[in-house]
Each structure stands twice: as structure tokens, then as C-alpha cells.
Amino acid sequence: MISYNITGYLLFALVTSITPGPNNYLLFSYGKKYGFTNSSKLMLGIFLGFFVLLYAAGYGIAEIIATNASIGLILKIVSSIWLFYLAIVLGKLSSDIALNSNARIGFYKGFFMQFVNPKAWIMAITGASAFLPQLENTHLSVFIFAITFGLVGVPCMILWISFGDIISRLLKSEKANKTLGMVLFGLMIVSIVMIWI
Q1: What pTM did the predictor assign?
Q2: Which of 87, 126, 140, 195 is disulfide-compatible with 188, CB 3.0–4.6 A?
């Protein structure tokens, strides 16, 4: 017998996955600069990294880390540094960058980014504490929790990449591209500030 608020969980997963955050800003920028097909490795890295983070949250590891003040502070510092780096990358992605540029972030960076992504941690910990299925088999409970959240996030990621792809066809001038880059830079800086509030 499953004790599982599936409707509430799906709604939580959808709302948190589709709203703006570091992953979605990055996917939008990549969709805009490189198109949908060339963003697939980044999307896969984000998906698998978040899946592992959900697993950790399901087993309570993420909650232990989040409630430890010293580890929490270290995570905040590392997250802030990483997000600032992403802010710079996002700003540059909207200007003229070649397809083979070193600024591209592929599978591995997308994967490891999840472990310093504050929104991903909040999503995973909150989701696990509120919606983890209560089955006799703990491993099955964690798997259902992680795979469900992960799969809900896939169409959200596709939407953000596609949105960026569409915007790239609408914004043709360099001035418009630079303005968008600065907006994305500013939004990422806001994300950093929110970590410390």
C-alpha cells in the first residue's frame, strides 16, 4: 500500500522545476546561443546530477548536510562562487561567441553544478521531507521519488531551451543580445543574493 500524495507532489515538482533558477537561466542561454540540439548534453548532465541529488535527499544525506551549520556555510560560499562564474558565462553567451568556445558548459559541468545549486538543494530537501513515498521498501520509495521529480523536470528544461531558441530568432541585433546578456547576469546575481538572505 502506497502512502503518497501524488497530485501534490507532481504540482510541487512542476512549479519548482519550471520557475526561474540557475539551471533554467543556463538552459535558456544555451538554447538561445547554440539551439536545442546542441544543448542536449547540458540538459542530460543537469537531469542526472539532480537525480543523484534527489537520491541523496531521499536517504536523508542532503538534510544532514543542510542542517549542519559549518557544511551549510561552505555550501553557500561554493554556491555563490559557482553562480557568479555562471553569471559571467550567461552574460557572454548572449554576445558573439563561437560554437567551439571554452565558455560552453557541457555534460560534466551541468552534472556537478547541481551539488552547488542552492535551488536544487531546496527542491530536493523540501520534496523529500514532504512527498517521499512511504513504502515498505525504502530503496523503492527513494527511486520513485527521484525518478518522478526528474521526469517532471524534463519537459520544463525542454521548454526553457526552446524559449531560448525562439528568442535567438527574434533578437537579431547585437545591442538586443547584449541587453539580454546583462539581464541574465543580473538575475543570476539576484540568485546569489537570495542565498544569503
Answers
A1: 0.77
A2: 87
